[in-house]
Structure formats: structure tokens, C-alpha cells
Amino acid sequence: MARDRSPAALVGAATDDAFEITFDGRPVTALPGQSVAAALWAAGILAWRRTRVGGRPRGAFCGIGQCYDCLATVNGRPNRRACLLPARPGDTVTTQEGHGHAELGV
Amino acid sequence: MPNSASDAPGSGTGDGAECGPEYDLAVIGAGPAGLAGAVAASELGLSVALLDASGQPGGQYYRHPSPALGATRPEALHHNWPAFADLLRRLAATEVSHLAGHHVWTVVPAADAAGAWDVHAVTGADGDGDRPVRVRARAVLLATGAYERQLPFSGWTLPGVMGAGGAQAMLKSGLVLPGRRVVVAGSGPLLLAVAASLAAAGARVPAVVEASDYLGYARRPGALLSQPDKLVEAAVHGAALLRHRVRLRTRSAVTQVHGSDRVEAVTVSRLDRRWRPVRGSGRRIACEALAVGHGLVPQLELAVGLGCTTRRTVDGTQALALGALQETSVSGVWAAGETGGVGGVQLALTEGELAGLAIAARLRGRAVAGENRRVRELRRRRARLRAFADAMAAVHAPGPGWPQWLDDATEVCRCEEVTAGRIREAVADYGARDARTVKLLTRAGMGWCQGRMCGAAVACLAAPAQAAQPEPPPERRPLAVPLRLGALAALNEPDSPGAAGAGLGPTD
């Protein structure tokens, strides 16, 4: 009993329309209605940003869009809040380095 | 119930920002307080716009999975779900325009209409949409809720450390856990609810670590006994924790997180009465994640931007000073729920309804106090719930000794990566005596979150040592959410306070 307890089982979720996104090139399964952060958590991924000063790994912290620790580059666009952004089929999520604008040279 | 700006009549008259129609009332926030206020006002005949950043109503308390996840029992993760279901039913029967995915960044008096307000919002899931919106209304109800208060400790920036409410939010909306073994720590009644829901969803919770002592409640029997349903709720959580064999460690705190790229374990230390860690008391607990929080902070940017008066709460945060019928010090602007002081869902529902009734009476030129039985009942309930909330806040307020668990290398400001050592240097060597001066000297609080995560800690570290509880400044953030310059430019109203007064960046 304890072994198969899960959030989905608890709320009786029927989630059979899974789709794929990628994180740093590797495939990750997401469910419709999940945020990008939730899909990454479900795959055991807790970090998708490296800080500007120390290059330290970060992921979701406040979970409600207030802390900006979960910023990721999604489909080439940096500084998206992964905890608010719904995952869409085919999304490419990449680890955001620093302020996310390195390729712009500014 | 129309549910987007474009469904509403008269939208799209262009001054750049897409301009909605004029409403009697704009409610900002679709959590318990905002929903109760919007429904009450609409049922009394007002035209109401309900703006909310999320894609679905409920706020943080009633956060629930998107319909796409097909949850058949979303109530399994909630208390008081029937109250929410009832509000949703009533909302659907009204003409309230629910503007989901609208991040309000400022509210200003309308430049060309006396007594009216302009509510400016950006759209999209994380506010990154391209369509700025302006909603004009004769009255505003601020129901913007709260976010978590965080006190830093060594290793709290490591992936796997989450806000306690954040972990619960991710669970409620995304049906995910940060790990299989999760320690819950901090202070406040939310911890018990978080631990109970994580355990019910399959996580192993080796410990709930509470910095205060529940014996504190025994010293306030009056407020406790006036709220039997709160005692029942506490008993339900307590029973759930027993069932899942969760240990409650009071007067203790997580003082260190271990791991290089993610959480592997935490050290839990005993605290003395002033929340100073007891030397040599550290015990290591292996875990994959830590959910931590020290109570809630009212979210006041929009109110402070309007000049609303604030007051200091029992546990040292700032909340709005409100009149007997929920009006702020700015005539025509009301507030309800956590913005007036953190007090929980029952208080939010009570205050939201009270505000809705009061606004309807005001806009129709009628008096409401005194003769209205429902208003009298709501005011009595509010007084009881506020007394209980204050008693609870006093028990869980941070003790003055907590900064002693910070070493100089501990990061305090997560965004700008400013350590406790640099903040102490600003205080000791450069004479900083308040959070604002520390910010100017070190950049603590100057990053993306604008001090929402580190503000409470920086205020404590900056305060003179003899101040037991520093006075935190009201949160002055001219822009309540990040904004593209394009959204400002699209306003195309050079003379309006919205364009001129908002400033162009987080320079405060």
C-alpha cells in the first residue's frame, strides 16, 4: 500500500496523455497541465539554472512565481519562470547560464 | 461568467494597452478572499472584474491541478474544499469577468476620470505575454495574499531545498514531489499541513522541525478555545502525522544542508528560547529534499504603491491598516485576506465577503454598518479569527537569536549571491543600520525577486543589536511584477500617473 502511494493516486488523476519535452537534449516525459518545473521534478531533475556569480545550480524554490530561482531557457527564450510556465509538447528546456543573455554579448 | 478580457464587451479601444470596459469593481487576486469578495459584490448587482495571475481560480490555498491532469479527487489535498466548490458554483452563476493569467503590475487613479482606478496588467502564464491590459473600475479590492517568509541557513540555496508552501504548491498543482524523503522545517502551523499532504502523497517525512514550542499555545487558552474548528484541524494533521510516523521536533531548526549539487542530508540543532542554536546539539538526518518556511508575509506592493497605510503585525511583518469594513486608508481601495495580516482561509473568506458587501453599499450610496445582520455576523467572526491568528503569530514569531546560526559564508540574498559576511561588514564597517542602506552597499535585495526572499533576514541583520525585532520597511516596489519596456511604451499615455509614476526599473 505505502509503496504505491503517489500524488496522482491520491487525487485519482487519469494522466494517460503524456508527451515529451527535452531538457538539455535528453527526453523528459510531461503531463498535460504540468508546469515545466513539475515535469522536471517528476523526472528527478531539481536544477536547471546556474547562478551569475558563483555558477551554482538552482531550481524551483518558492513554487509560486515569487523567487525567480526557477528561471530557465525555454525554446531559446531565457528567464522563463519554470514553476508558472505550462509544459507544451516538444518544448526544449535548457539550463540557463548566468543572466541568460550570454549569446547576445551584452 | 466571461473568462477573458476579450470576452468582455467594449474591450480593445486602443490607447496601446488593450483597454477593458469600465467596471464597478476590480478584484485583484482570485484566492479565497478575492473570490468571496467578487461573488458577494456581483450578487448585489455590481459589475466585477476578477484579475488573477494564475490560469485557474483558487489562489495558493485552493491551488489544484489543471483540468488536463484529470484529477477526480482534487479535494484529497485540501481542507475546506466544499467552501471553494460553493464559491466556484456561485461565481459561475454571476457575470463576473474572470481575467485569468493577468499579472497586475500597478494600480493608479485614472487620469481622466475622477474617482476611478486604472488596473494595469500583463498577460501570459508567467507574465511574458505580449498583451498589456488596462481595466478601469470605480472601486478596487486588493486580495493579493502572501508569500513565505524565509530565514537563511547554510546550504539553503542547494537544489532540493524548497519553500514549505512551495513544495505544497507544486504538489497541489503539478502532482509532484521534490524527493521521496523530505524533511519539513521552519515555524508555523503551515508546516503540519505541508508534512501531512507530502506524507499522504507518498513521501517519507522523517521529521517536522519546528523552531517554536507548541506549549506557547497553552499560554493563550482564550484565543484557542474560541476556535474549536482550528483545534479539530490541528488534531486531523496530528493524527495524519502519527499515522505516517512523522516525528515532530519542537524548538529545533535546520542549521545546515549537506550535499554538493543537491540535498543529501540536513543537520537539525536544538534552539534555546531566543532561537539560538545549542552548541553540540546537531543531529544529521538523511533526506532528498527540505521544505522550509517561517510563516507568511503579506503581499503589499500594489497597496503601498497607492499610498495605503500599513501596520506592524504581531510577528513582525507589515500588513495593511484597515477600517471596520475592510477599506484601506485610501478611499475607494479595499483589502481582504492576508493583505490585512496573515490569518488563514476562514478569515480570508470572511473578510472578502465583508468587503464585497461594503463596496456594494458604498457604490450605491447606502450605509452598511449597524443595521445589516450579515455584516454584524461577519464582523464578529472576523474579530474572533483575528484574535486567534494573532495568538498563533505570537507563538511562531522568529526569535531574535536566529542570525547566530548563520556563518559568514552563508548566502542571504539568493538572487545577488550576497553572503551574511558581506552584510555584517556593511553594518560593522560601513555603518549601515537598515535594510535599504545594506542593499545599496551590497546589492542584497536588488535582484530578480526584489528582496522578497531575503528582506526579512536582511532587516534583522541590519538592525542595531539591541533592537529585539527590527521594524521592516514597507515593501516599496514600484513594479509589482517584471515588465517589458514594450508594455510601458504601449501605454502611450505620457501624462498618466501609470506611465510617469511607475518608473522604468527596480531602482529603489
TrEMBL record, chain A:
Keyword set, alphabetical order: Oxidoreductase
A GO term, aspect molecular function: oxidoreductase activity
Top-level taxonomic group: Bacteria
Protein name: Proline dehydrogenase
Species annotation: Streptomyces gilvosporeus
Highest classification ranks of the organism: Bacteria, Bacillati, Actinomycetota, Actinomycetes, Kitasatosporales
TrEMBL record, chain B:
Keywords from the named record: Oxidoreductase
CDD domains: GlpA-like_Fer2_BFD-like
An annotated Gene Ontology molecular function: oxidoreductase activity
Domain BFD-like [2Fe-2S]-binding intervals: 412-459
Pfam families, alphabetized: Fer2_BFD, Pyr_redox_2
Residue ranges occupied by any FAD/NAD(P)-binding domain in the UniProt entry: 23-350
Entry-linked PANTHER family: ANAEROBIC GLYCEROL-3-PHOSPHATE DEHYDROGENASE SUBUNIT B (PTHR42949:SF3)
Protein name, UniProt field: FAD/NAD(P)-binding oxidoreductase
